[in-house]
Structures are given as structure tokens and as C-alpha cells.
Amino acid sequence: MTVLLREQVAEAARRLAHEGLLVGTAGNVSAMSGELVGVTASGVMLGGCRPEDVTVVTPSGYVVEGDLAPTSELSLHLGIYADTATAAVVHTHAPYSTTVACVLDELPVLHYQQLLLGGAVRVAPYATFGTPELASAVREALDGRQAALMASHGSVAIGDSLSAAVQNALLLEWLAALYHRASVLGTPKVLTQQEQDDVVRQALSRNYGTPQPHEENQ
Ligand SMILES: [Zn+2]
To answer: Which of 2, 26, 170, 217 is at a distance of 20 to 30 A from 92, taking alpha carbons?
Structure first.
């Protein structure tokens, strides 16, 4: 079981590096399987992440498999698993997510796809990396959301599967880039609460984001 877990976490790290969200050794990925968490080790070049670069720990942080020390943000990952039923956590220093996290207190909803993350994305106040203060601020910012930003630091995305957490990190980066580009042209227009409610209603009635059978096949 842990062989597959370590392979999957390594593959997700390589994918996020390929997409430009993880650069060098910056950022980390984890996934929960049963009662164990596979998490990228500290100092690993994430673009070439191998299963042996993923350390397996218990929910309290005790290492049960792997030769390398887990990421310095381990308490952030474990705290999120303790709070929520999430299956995976991605932390990045992705270029646009980090850019907006250096300026905004909250990433507003300019585009309806952001509602997949739960609405406006909060920016957790700055605290030193690897500290319980940072972990607790991020956990608070994640309340009711699939992602959060970290002031002057980066982003966190979660999901009910590893691939969902990866998709949420990619979506957040796209939305941050959108905000940046829109701001260059003028003042971005934020969707009103009514417009957001209408999107949720429409998405529910159409199963938005899920492949649907062709009408003739129904
Ligand atoms: Zn970081």
C-alpha cells in the first residue's frame, strides 16, 4: 500500500513541477492512505521526485518508512488532515499565486470557475515557514475552501483525492494569473453574490465539470 502511495505522491510532485508550480526544492505534496501520510522529503528536487523521496508518517508525524526527513511544513500538512476529511495537500510557491499573496488579503471571485474552490480565496497572515503559527493561520484560511494563499509565501490546495488537490492548485494558479492580467488592464470586476449563487444553481442542475452521456444514449 505504501509503495503505491509513495509512487503517487512522487508523480504528483513531478507533474506540478512540470506545470511550473513547484520550482526546484520549493513546495511539498502529501496524500493520506488509510492511517498513513506520504509526504515529500525536505530538500528534494521536486521535478525529479522518486518514490524514495517520499517519507511515510503517522498522523502524529512518526516516520514509519523512508530514509529522508519529511518536509519542514509537515505540521501544516498533518494539521489539515486533523481538521478536515481531505485526502491530499499541495503546497507551492507558484509564481502568480505567490504574487497575489504578496499584495491581497483575499483573492476575489472574478471568474465563476473559482467557485470550485469555495469562493473568494483567503490569504493567511504571514508567519515564518515551518512554524505552528503558519500552520494554524492556513488551517483557518481554508475553512470552507479547497485552497488558501499564504501572505508573502505561496499557496495551499487540498482535495478529496491527490488528483483533485493537484487540479485545485492548478486552478488557483490560473485564477491568480487571471487576476494579475486583469489588473494590468484596469480594475477587475468581481462577481456579485447573486451572480455566484446563480452559478452554483446552474452547476448543480447540469453536473458541471462531470462528463455527461450524449442525449441519444440516455
Ligand atoms: Zn513554502
So the answer is: 2
Decide the pairing of beta strands 88-92 and 36-40: unpaired
CA of 33 to the centre of ligand 1 (A): 23
How many A from CA of 22 to the centre of ligand 1?
10
The overall longest dimension of the chain from CA atoms, in Å, is: 57
Alpha helices in 19-131 (DSSP H): 74-83, 95-101
Q: Give the amino acid at 33.
A: S
Q: Distance between CA 84 and CA 31 in Å, rounded?
A: 13
pLDDT tens digits along 11-39? 999 999 999 999 999 999 999 999 999 99
CA dist 77 and 138 (Å) reads: 10
Ligand 1 centroid to 203 CA: how many Å? 33
- Give backbone dihedrals phi and psi of 204, rounded to 5 degrees, phi first: -65, -40
Relative orientation angle of helices 132-141 and 74-83, to the nearest 10 degrees:
40
Instruction: Identify the active-site residue in 19, 35, 52, 73.
Output: 73
Q: Active-site residue 133, yes or no?
A: no
pLDDT at 121 over 90: yes
What is the 129 CA–ligand 1 centroid distance (Å)?
A: 6
